Amino acid sequence: MRRTILVIGIFELIALGIALLGMRMGLQSDEAKYLLEVPFSLPHAIRWFLSFGASLTFHEFLMRFVLASIAVQAGWLLWDLGTVLPLERQMALVGTWLLSAALIMQGGTLLPVTMTTVCGLAFVWVALHPEGTGHCRGPCVGLLWLLSLFISYQCLLYAPLVWSGLRSNRAHLRESVLYFTIPVLLLGIYLLGYPLAVAGMPQIPTQDMPLETGQRFLLAMKIFLFAGGYVTSVVGLWGILTGGRRDLFLSLILILTFILLFPRQHHAVLLLPLLTGGFFLLFCRRKVPPRGFLLLQTVATIIVIIIHPPKKSLNIARETMAALHAQGITTGMILIDGAYGHEWQYESRQPIRTFSQELRASIEEQAAVFICTKKSCEDDRNFDLWTKRISAPLEVWTK
Questions:
Q1: Bridge partners of residue 389, in order along the sequence
Q2: Whole-number pLDDT of residue 42
Q3: Using H for helix, E for strand and C for coil, what is the string for 113-136?
Q4: Do 40 and 199 form a contact (C-beta atoms < 8 A)?
Q5: What is the pTM of this model?
């Protein structure tokens, strides 16, 4: 029992480091959107969860730490999966998860992919767990499938693993079909009754439209190699291709197709459950020396982090609002002339409106602050109304 508590504590320290790394990379617009409980971004339950405690000053860090803790503590699923392995291989299996570059650099992000990855690992655990152990079967798998779909729509990418988990206990085909299709049908009914949820689903960004096929494949390859810090990616893929598990292979094809359509670095973590599943298959056949692998993976992950260091992002919205508060400006409407993201809405406790020439006469009188996010707003501002400039990262004027 003491050892278990000690390991949990070590896992929490790892999660704390991952969360602090996420804080260092700064709050992105998409992350702020999820923290703000924007209606079309995520299903209701996960939106409520991420917005819980929004009034706290450390809300962002709290959510990063909670998500990182869930992702790190999910390693216990691999520990349970590896009960059929010798202790060294069991520990190495957990190491494939904890020492992966994707988990370290993306586990602290406030994006749906973090929870999607945890659900994916749960499905790997369900599908690959040895029979006769009394773990999650039948109705339990169906309930897990239902919950995961309403946590993140991207969990559909792990559908082959869900089906494999349902069929692994040799239940009647009719029961397996019901447990698999009912959650999907409920999700469909939810989307039909809540059209805004469809609008929040991934769409190919306009900047990705002109990408050629060769460029997309190159980006997808880089994302794949980054997922496991090169070593886990290559060896895990070897395990998937030689392990004879079509469920892992089909899920891999689905996720790689998704990455080809949406080549985003944070999607790398979606591959991690499958790669650890490939390692499990190799460890079962004793084709990978555990100590040598852990050493090699640790070195490779360090090299990946050095080559692709997490960039410290200046949160201009936070710095600007701090400058306003330092001047005692905490009330009144804020006008922003130019493009801005959801991070401004998250950082500001004051209402924010977009400035436009058409509405200039009606809203400029009501505003307390004028912020310019463009190169210059000299022609837009009313010089008779705005006279005082505050020292801030952007051009800021007050009355």
A1: 397
A2: 61
A3: HHHHHHHHHHHHHHHHCCCCCCCC
A4: yes
A5: 0.85
